[in-house]
Amino acid sequence: ILIVPLAYCMMLPTARFNSQTFAQRALQDSEGAAAPGFAAPESGEEEAGEGAAEISLTRLNAEAASLAGQEVEAVCQAMSDAKLPAGLMVCYRFRITCCAADAQPVFIFVTKPKGAAPVNDSWVRARGRLSVYEHHGYAIPLITTDAVVSEKEPAVPFLF
Against a cut of 0.85, is the pTM above it? Predict the structure, then answer.
């Protein structure tokens, strides 16, 4: 029994989730809209300082109201979908509590950049002013930005 967690840890560096996994694992309301489903942020997460500082998506969700109006930065996977409000895309990562089987998407909205939107599942860095967007009765953090830049996938792409 003690060997099973080790087997999962060995597979974790190569395991990947994408927008299809997002659609399957996201909590949804009766109309099919993705609903935020996340735990409280871990203690000791980096505080937002002067200027934009990268903040975890978990913290952006949990503290959106208090961070509203600040410059923030998030690294995540991009996803555009026809079901989303016009001009917005989803910026997501997966939060793992125990193992990949319990991975749940944590997401925010980001304004689509002018020109072509990033390819679904590509890693991006979104930087801009944070606000709260009401969508289907949910308050979802929104980063308003003019551009998102491609980003290399983090060494550990999951939130814990």
Answer: no
